[in-house]
Amino acid sequence: MPHHLFKCSECIPERKQHAVIKGLGETLADALPLGYLNTIPGSISERGCAYCGAKHVIGTPMKDVIHLSHGPVGCTYDTWQTKRYISDNDNFQIKYTFATDMKEKHIVFGAEKLLKQTMLDAFKAMPHIKRMTIYQTCASALIGDDISAIAQEVMDELPEVDVFVCNSPGFGGPSQSGGHHKINIAWINQKVGTFEPEIKSDYVINYVGEYNIQGDQPIMDDYFKRMGIQVLSTFTGNGSYDDLRGMHRAHLNVLECARSAEYICNELRKRYGIPRLDIDGFGFGPLGASLRKVALFFGIEDRAKAIIDEETARWKPELDWYAARLEGKKVCLWPGGSKLWHWAHVIHDEMKLNVVSVYTKFGHQGDMEKGISRCEQGALAIDDPNELEGLEAMDMLKPDIIFTGKRPGEVAKKIRVPYLNAHAYHNGPWKGWEGWVRFARDIYNAIYSPIHELAKLDISKDEIPADKGFVTRRMLSDVNLPDEIRNSATMRPYSGDYDCLPNYMGKTYPYMEKTPAPSTAA
């Protein structure tokens, strides 16, 4: 497999080892780019830091906690509200963020007094919240503030509160993945085993590596409950601080995002003997196989089968409708972490999309191994690309759409390539059977968007046809819809002149005219 040196990176020849093109019959040993290394100076990486990986990815989805950054206000502001980690307590952790707001004088004279006063002020301002996490930043780590000692002082003064300290400064790893590791280990060292949960079932799990992006967690939680399984804790989306202190009482750790949370699963296995089972909530096939694995562990396979049969029968016709219209479309799969390999094969198998590129910002070699093995021949695999490399890759590959984060996504829009936010979703949740159809709908809407078609025109010289981009109307008029969809109770008569797409929940299709039922009259 040839390594690929971008023209924009010819002045940084070391970058050649970080990109490869998957060739015919080549092994992963031939295909693997270098990854999870310190950023090469001059390459202008878009990675997040270790502090970001700890606070933004792992910590702040925890719902009933004051999340306090001990450092300059810019650190906490940069990790606030940029992902849709919703919660069922009125989104407390999204609405509020807390920082000590260190200044130059605190760097010179120390900031421990500032930290203690800020902690006391925060608990006073939010009297209904009795739990806090303190995140160390580069500034407080460099001057050596003893955060743990200050946290203990506050807990001694306020016996009803509990404080967790995460020492994960930005320089604590090559990327945000280093922060994932640090907060995983810190949590099990400091808090697991300090609370005894109530056990309500013979089948008890920790759901690990789930961050409840736009409501993913309740969907998966519902499947487990229908199987009679108690979800003791969710690490950490919509998760409760005290529930996560009781992780040691679970019978099984069910792991979703292996990149961010395998560390705590491995430690729970070592220290408490709790087995680890990796699952995948995306795609009909992988999700069904995942529920079967969990059920097999507990000996309740029939319960999983009933859910799989019911959900597949309900949603498969709608997925097929989208797959027929997405077949052959090219996608750059640039999500940053584990979605690289969660999605690479299943979007091809179930939505008929062709993956022409994969990349990771903070993934390890194992992420690249799985991602490259699951994508098509000729795909370009890149570790930690910068903006210029991303632009060059899109110009070379001519994708119909990319799945990525907001920064590279906004760059793609500048060159008229639609994107979906792979980190925070566009109109999620995307997990579960219905969620996977919703994902297909978002892809369809993006690719066939009239706005994107119009954006490709140069208004200074191109003729602007009145129906430019309205492919959906013509597509629907030219095909015979499957009876399962056309006769579905979710259809309603089309009215109006505009091209309407499925609504948020995917349960009504106002642009489709329902076929009248056959007459039974003699």
Secondary structure blueprint with pairings:
Elements: E1 19-21, H1 28-31, H2 50-59, E2 66-70, H3 73-78, H4 92-95, E3 98-99, H5 104-109, H6 112-125, E4 131-136, H7 138-143, H8 147-157, E5 162-166, H9 176-190, E6 204-210, H10 216-226, E7 230-236, H11 241-245, E8 252-255, H12 258-272, E9 276-278, H13 284-298, H14 301-326, E10 330-336, H15 339-343, H16 346-351, E11 354-360, H17 365-374, E12 380-383, H18 387-397, E13 401-404, H19 406-414, E14 419-421, H20 432-447, H21 450-455, H22 471-478, H23 483-486
Strand portion, in percent? 5-15%
CATH fourth-tier homologous superfamily of the domain at 50-190 = Nitrogenase molybdenum iron protein domain
Cα-atom radius of gyration: 25 Å
Could you tell me the CATH topology label of the domain at 50-190: Rossmann fold
Separate helix tally: 23
Largest sheet: 6 strands, mixed
Amino- and carboxy-terminal Cα gap: 70 Å
Number of E strands: 14
Helix/strand structural class? alpha/beta
**CATH class category name of the domain at 50-190:** Alpha Beta
| Uncertain residue ranges | 485-522
Helix content: 40-55%
Q: What is the overall pLDDT average? A: 88
Order of strands, main sheet, comes to 1-12-11-10-13-14
CATH architectural name of the domain at 50-190:
3-Layer(aba) Sandwich
Gross geometry: globular
